[in-house]
Amino acid sequence: MIRKCKEHGCFRGEACPYCGAVGDFILDDDREDRLGRFVSGALRHFPEKLELPMYIDGWVSINALTAAAAGKYKWPKKYHIYALVESDEKGRYEIAGGKIRARYGHSIGVILNYPAYEGEFAYYGVSPEEVDVILEQGIHPVKQKYLHLSTTLEKAIEVAMIHTENPSIFKIDAKAACEDGLNVMVANDDILLTDEIPVDYILEIYE
């Protein structure tokens, strides 16, 4: 459920996490889920199916996206999309200048332009069965345009455990990779994007 606190903006749940206010109703759970899936698909996977014009860096007109959503479900308004983005704790989307884009998760050929990562390390989790292949071939994206890395060990474990109960986590020398010319970008506080990580930049494995 999405509600809006007059003091702190949109949030998900029954009460504002900052002040406890109930706030104004925006979307119920079912509509939040349906609109979220639609926006994800439109911005990450199939804009062409919706005849949704997209810039090469992933931006689309929020008016056009709203119209596409309303064409499917009838009820979505622009403020529903703004509320969806504002209340999203995972930072999946960004809005600027009347446009919206997904920060990460694309399967289409966008060319993103985020700031370069300035930290020392990055992390990537896999199932134990994948370790030997990665140690031979490096880390490459599978179903997505970009390889997604985590900024912390804890986040990498959290992400990997979606797919496996006993993940192996690679620690990556992101600083050296950037110094050698690899483009490692900051999508949000938790997620980094790059084209690949060659074996030479893998420092150790946590199992």
UniProtKB/TrEMBL annotation:
Identify its protein family: Belongs to the KptA/TPT1 family.
- State which gene encodes it: kptA
Q: Does the keyword RNA-binding apply?
A: no
* PANTHER family noted in UniProt: PUTATIVE PHOSPHOTRANSFERASE, TRNA 2'-PHOSPHOTRANSFERASE 1
Instruction: Please give the name of this protein.
Output: Probable RNA 2'-phosphotransferase
UniProt-listed GO biological process terms: tRNA splicing, via endonucleolytic cleavage and ligation
UniProt keyword annotations, A-Z: NAD, Transferase
A GO molecular function held by the record: tRNA 2'-phosphotransferase activity
* InterPro entries associated with the record: Ptrans_KptA/Tpt1, RNA_2'-PTrans_C, RNA_2'-PTrans_KptA, RNA_2'-PTrans_N
Q: Does the keyword Transferase apply?
A: yes
* UniProt cross-references to Pfam families, sorted A to Z: PTS_2-RNA (PF01885)
User: Which major enzyme category is it?
Assistant: transferase
